Amino acid sequence: VEVKIEVVIPEKERSKEEMSPNGKASPLIYKVNGTARHYHLEEHPIASNPYHNPKDVVEASVCHVKDLENGQMREVDLGCGKALLIKESGEFHAVGHKCPHYGAPLVKGVLSKGRVRCPWHGACFNISTGDIEDFPGLDSLPRFQVKIEKEKVYIRASKQALQTQRRTKVMAKCISLSNYNLSSTNVLIIGAGAAGLVCAETLRQEGFSDRIVMCTMDRHLPYDRPKLSKSMDSHPEQIALRPKEFFCTYDIEVLTETQVAAVDVKSKIAVFKDGFKMEYNKLLIATGNTPKTLSCKGKEIENVFNIRTPEDANRVVKLATSKNVVIVGASFLGMEVAAYLAERAHSVSLVELEHVPFKKFFGERVGRAVMKMFENNRVKFYMQTEVSELREQEGKLKEVVLKSGKVLRADVCVVGVGAVPATGFLKQSGINIDSKGFIVVNKMMQTNIPGVFAAGDAVTFPLALRNNKKVNVPHWQMAHMHGRIAALNMLAHGTEISTVPYLWTAMFGKSIRYAGHGEGFDDVVIQGDIDELKFVAFYTKSDEVVAVASMNYDPIVSKVAEVLAAGRTIRKRDVDTVVFLSFRTGDMSWLTGKGT
């Protein structure tokens, strides 16, 4: 038996291109300002052969049918590129072998119930269609055609797809954009981070062909914000999530350096800071957080930074090179900045109120292990103290004075003491906001106001993993999913959020991966050698595992995430078995409930 792989258009996307009896694409109807409008998807002729250029096609025999057992994956080489060959439930599938997010090898990921999960950051892809089903990342995997002949497996694929290892879903375009009133849009998205961009893209992927406007206080198009602290010298164009041409092609308008000052939900009007008003039909609020600043004397001195933009990060790197750096706050941002600058600066000092970094999030043992790693890399900690004063010389930062009395030399100070939701402009709007300033939404990302949705770091939502407890999860992956769920429900799909939170942090070339929601954990069960930074930590609450973290133990976090996503419970007593089956033996049958 031979398996052949050929790039094909997934059925879900092909259906968008099917013609109606009158020769036009099936119309979608949306209401703008009370008037029904009919719009058609951009017409795409359906070709019987998806390969328009025969020279771009490669076909190769990659293995014998008996070489793969059910539940196994294999990276196969087609000569001009690789594919991921998968066998599940007796069927072969072939897709791109690299995660489109950061290029992780998916063969080292987790295969379960028709999807493969990335071992690094948890993105999930359907093995039949290649479609992305959980995040981070924007693109799907290319799907290749598999054929079996004479007990051999053949793959037929586009050379271009093998080289790019990514596929952007088919999207609609806006109809008659030039006819719109500039002060009116069907969908207004406030905020251009991951949540806002994914919302806009999902609308286009679902065939929405009316006007979409995104507005942001930033001067740049949407970019990969986590890299601001992980790769601080990256320029805006290097970390852009999509090129400028993408927004032009799919008619997603982005208003940069604009700020919404108020929202009138009764009239469905957003009022901008400069007085401009825009009417909307559906609204997404995805404004994220605003960094907290220091309240001590001298906080306005030059060379004191919150890392908010690429320019901030670039400026800090330039000023810190061979100089003295003080970082206030052992937050994720603070620790990542300290790690990035350790080899570049003359000295790096970190000031923190707690006695161990990450204690509330990772627990004391993991926090101490991470702290030791930093100390071994020349980072000096000043714990259980705060900044009382910043001193200057000729207008620039010279010293940081601590409440303990210690005076630190400082040419640059980076503040990472947390953030607050950027929702102040909504106080008089009637939109439900809790006591901490977070927008309250339901499982469909809807606020208490019809037609108004919210997503990302500025919201609290019901987390299925924790019995629908209202939580705030300021993670990059979660913002993506929020945006998708909001878009689907703007189109009345009735889709509820059920994803498992997943995050990562990178320091000194090592990563901590984390899945779940460990808030309020009462015990930590650690397997492996924490001193050697090769471990997995299970966070439990009342005997139930609520989160997991690991270093150098891939893909255990992605495996546990799949268990939690399936709605299964891991008990504290099961931890040894989970680690043994999933990591040491590689047995994945327990994921589907078929193992013991």
Automatic annotation (TrEMBL):
Family named by the database record: Belongs to the FAD-dependent oxidoreductase family.
Localization in the cell: Mitochondrion
Keyword Lipid metabolism among record annotations: no
A biological-process GO annotation: execution phase of apoptosis
Matching Gene3D superfamilies: 3.30.390.30, FAD/NAD(P)-binding domain, Rieske [2Fe-2S] iron-sulphur domain
Annotated function: Induces apoptosis through a caspase dependent pathway. Reduces mitochondrial membrane potential.
Domain Rieske: 60-155
SUPFAM superfamilies: FAD/NAD(P)-binding domain (SSF51905), FAD/NAD-linked reductases, dimerisation (C-terminal) domain (SSF55424), ISP domain (SSF50022)
GO molecular function terms attached to this record: 2 iron, 2 sulfur cluster binding; metal ion binding; oxidoreductase activity, acting on NAD(P)H
Species assigned in the record: Hypocryptadius cinnamomeus
InterPro entries from the UniProt entry: FAD-oxidoreductase/Apoptosis, FAD/NAD-bd_sf, FAD/NAD-binding_dom, FAD/NAD-linked_Rdtase_dimer_sf, Reductase_C, Rieske_2Fe-2S, Rieske_2Fe-2S_sf
Record bears the keyword Electron transport: yes
Gene Ontology CC terms: mitochondrion
Protein name (Swiss-Prot/TrEMBL): Apoptosis-inducing factor 3
Keywords: 2Fe-2S, Apoptosis, Electron transport, FAD, Flavoprotein, Iron, Iron-sulfur, Metal-binding, Mitochondrion, Oxidoreductase, Transport
